[in-house]
Design goal:
The chain is 49% helix and 6% strand. By secondary structure, the chain is mainly alpha-helical. A two-stranded antiparallel ribbon has the order 1-2. Its main location: plastid.
Length: 203
Amino acid sequence: MAFVSGVSLGTSRFAGQAVSVRRARSSGTVMMAMSKSIPFLECPKNLDGRLPGDVGFDPLYLSDNINLQYARASELKHGRICMLAVLGFVVQGIIHLPGPYFSETSPIAAIYKIPIEGWFQIIAFISAIELATFKKNYDGSPPGDYNFDPLNLAKDTATLEKYKENEIVHCRAAMVGWFGFLAQQLVTGQSVVEQLGNMKPLM
């Protein structure tokens, strides 16, 4: 948490400032903007703030060689899956449907209770979604936008942009949170719900 807090404080400190550094070249002097999230590194050239949640975090400069629209669509897809997974980790320890396949309280152990027919259904469902949405990654559509808003929450452009920013922040938090849930259960042997009511030291 100290690390995360430090990054947040550093990000907020530099977010509102136009920080630049002079870099000498044989042809002259060029002003290079610094990353908001890592102030001692130059901001990658393709991370210019157009995408929601863009704070210039790319220490390996992968964005120089990757299609940003595709990368953002992938980030949103993995983030949405992890938001469901985080919820599933909690629900699995509290609510169970009738039947032997749904009685397991451990999310990890529950994987092995799924029959082969269930795995075929899961793989078929995921494949259908991938095939139906694959083209949108390359046709210029906004990344991750599948026109899914049954409650009409994004009523105007300003609200839509706000929700896009909120979603990517929650996606990133869920990806870290899901990994944390998994690591905790593997190390402690307790589910997330069990840990809340029966915390024990590792040593």
